[in-house]
Amino acid sequence: MQSETAGYLISNLLHLHAMQYIIYGFLHFHYLTTAMYPPLFEGIDRYMNYIVLDLEWNQAMSAKSSVFNKLPFRLRGEIIQIGAVKLDENMQPGDEFKIDIKPVFFKRMHHRVKKLTGFDKERLQGGISFEEGMALFQNWCGDDTVFLTWGYDDRGIMEQNIMLHDLDWDWIADWINLQLIYSVQTNGDNNQKALSAAMEFFEIEQTRIAHDALGDAYNTALVASRLDMENGILQYNDAQRIIADRRMQIAQASENRQRGSGDSPIERFEAFELNSRAECFENEHLSGFACPNCMKMLRSNRWVCQGDKRYMALVSCGKHGQYLIRLKLRNDEFGRWSASKLVYKADEETVAFFNAKAVQARRRRKKAARIRKPSV
After folding, report:
1. Do the beta carbons of residue 102 and residue 50 sit within 8 Å?
2. Are 97 and 355 in contact (CB under 8 A)?
3. Alpha-carbon gap, residue 96 to 79, rounded angstroms
4. Distance (Å, rounded) from C-alpha 45 to C-alpha 225?
5. What's the whole-model pTM score?
6. Fold of 31-61+71-239
7. Do the beta carbons of residue 304 and residue 355 sit within 8 Å?
8. What is the pLDDT of residues 173-225, one digit of tens each?
9. Exposure letters 148-177 (e unless 16+ CB within 10 A, then b)
């Protein structure tokens, strides 16, 4: 009897873990496909409701919290507050919405979330259920809604929470990341500018509380009101490409200044949604290069770190000479990595430049090793 009971419990546990991986895989696939293939926008649609949304969410106390055993997938955050501002026909801030949500799974306030938001245990208990809150929010939003957020995080959190509570999510299909429009229209080369930086750029005075869902939504709406939203939405589907091209041009100019050369790169490549720094170097499209003359694949295991997540390597083709590969890595607060690659034909000056940087890197490593070595 005991063995049958144990077998039953193990079977249920394996089933739960299988469901976790299935749902997590679906969410990850959904995130990747919607990031790679965003909805097509053709300018402002006057029949749509444009709503600036901001969420606040609580986190588990640790990555190993037992609460994850009760969840069907790895929940990044549980929503505790929804704040939103409707934009009028002139793309100016209009009606406002704000509501506190009582968490079901992450019931204890994470210390960092508490410090940022000011939420405490008593305020958490005063919120309404997620189901009730979403019903009120959907009714306030109305039909044909496009959500505007500052970054991608709010969308992912909203979708996870809706799936967790098994609610309808067809009505939250259309999203616009205002960071992209801001970067395109302010000649930025980074799509992750802070909201405070955008407010400073437009000289917008901070009149609402930061890290309050409605306060951040209102400030984001003010930034939207300073943007050319008609052109921004029209160009939205090309925004990432525009920013990536601009980043490449800036990187190229910087590298040329460092090398004292006007040579243009013979190959450019960008990779997104990588899980670690190591995966960047394991990616054959980043760490490898096909000789443009004979198409022989060239790879290097010797990378020289130049600081600020910048690396370079020399690769050699026996018939057609050497090439310099440069990588610039970036990571966000959620552990996602991306990388840009530039490849140059390496002349004597380039090889000398690389060797000099390699010597500097070795000296830095030796110095760091001496500092770490305990005194006897």
Report:
1. no
2. no
3. 18
4. 16
5. 0.62
6. Nucleotidyltransferase; domain 5 (3.30.420)
7. no
8. 899 999 999 999 998 766 678 899 999 999 999 999 888 999 999 999 999 99
9. bbbbbbbbbbbbbbbbbeeeeeebbebbbb
